[in-house]
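Ribosomal RNA large subunit methyltransferase E
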Amino acid sequence: MPRPGVRDAYRRRARSEGFVSRAVYKLRAIDEKYRLFRRGQRVLDLGCAPGSWLQYIAARIGSEGLVLGVDLEPPQVPLAPPIYFLSGDVLSLDFEAIRAQSTYFEVIVSDLAPRTSGIKGVDQQRSLDLAQRAWEVARELLAPGGHFLVKIFEGPDAASLAIQLKQAFKECHRIKPAGSRPASKEYYLLGLGKLTDSGQQETGPRRRDAGSGGG
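Predicted structure tokens:
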């Protein structure tokens, strides 16, 4: 949250454009550069509340796509196709609960952030734990050729996740997008083109039966 009395142009812009959070501009900046989304995709949004990323993704994938949000708190946006929601803690959520909505995703994004304690080392570790959990989900549910975007805080152990993504994706980028406050310690890791176990990239998912949230 911005400090009292500090103007936030992104927050005002979000209100004027109908988004529930300024965070949408971080995702938009990344998408405009790397073209993550296209019509008809299945997208998983971890840590989706209050829902501006859901709003943006839904507009990009269209009515034939699906975006499933997961969070402890419900999003502040209408839950109507292509937007679906699963309530739960990502750290303890069973993969089968996600698979009940869709057995694969072409893009997985995570804007998960820990409840900060004010203790630098503790907050860095909590952020890394969430990012690693998001990567566990992506390893299990992201289709070959798919993309993975995850937020993480600066810290001495954060590089370990970047190493894992460089081995698992055709490309890996570290990003500080427009919309991210300069003083914030957050940044994003983006894996493009998930490789198969043989180290090859497929152009799309192998089709499987969808769960109840298909569209």
